[in-house]
Amino acid sequence: MKTLGILGGMSPESTASYYLNINRAVNRRLGVNHSAKILLSSLEFEEIVECQKSANWQRAGEILGIQAKLLEQAGAEGILLATNTMHKVAAQIIANISVPFLHILDVVAQRIKANGLQNVALLGTSFTMSDSFYLEGLKARGVTPLVPDEKARGEIHRIIFDELCLGLIKTESKAFYLETIEKLRALGAQGVILGCTEIGLLINQKDSALPFFDTAALHSEMAVDFILDR
């Protein structure tokens, strides 16, 4: 069994789901009292949020790169970044480590294509829905993302930071997300990428006829395969 290093805390809510999902999956596969070998670096989220607000991605990358290196030095044989948005600085993290980096877009695109789909709605933070690191990253992997209009992107972003990251689940916010999905479905979306690791706290596959691709769940599966060397 390999030891996985997780860069977490962005937010604590989604990191907790990663931790539980990975350990439960390892236990299902191995039985008895087996669990995953995990080293966790839980960052101070507000420090990262301030970097996002000021567009100081260089500083954010330095912070994450340093923590990734510390995880490697502590014995991590691979690094997982438990957030979609901060994959914007994945290159800086990779430059700081000599062990594998488990990139979230690799597993998401792979699963979408395995389902025979190409045009997929993308929900996430404003950075994820607007910036090239995610949009072009998907296209380079053979997936075409469809994003909401600017006003809807702003509300989706607000709900993530003001509610989901704080563990607040509101009925009206769920309704807004599902309404947005239906609009994208009318534009040709064949599925939905839950492109923020907190969104799965609000909506799930039972809420829509379109197939959901929960990035946190898929990333956790990728982690389990790595840990068990499969």
Automatic annotation (TrEMBL):
InterPro entries: Asp/Glu/hydantoin_racemase, Asp/Glu_race, Asp/Glu_racemase_AS_2, Asp_race. Keywords: Isomerase. Pfam families: Asp_Glu_race. SUPFAM superfamilies: Aspartate/glutamate racemase. Gene3D superfamilies: 3.40.50.1860. GO terms for molecular function: amino-acid racemase activity. It comes from the Bacteria. PANTHER family: ASPARTATE-GLUTAMATE RACEMASE FAMILY (PTHR21198:SF7), GLUTAMATE RACEMASE (PTHR21198). Belongs to the aspartate/glutamate racemases family. This is Aspartate racemase.
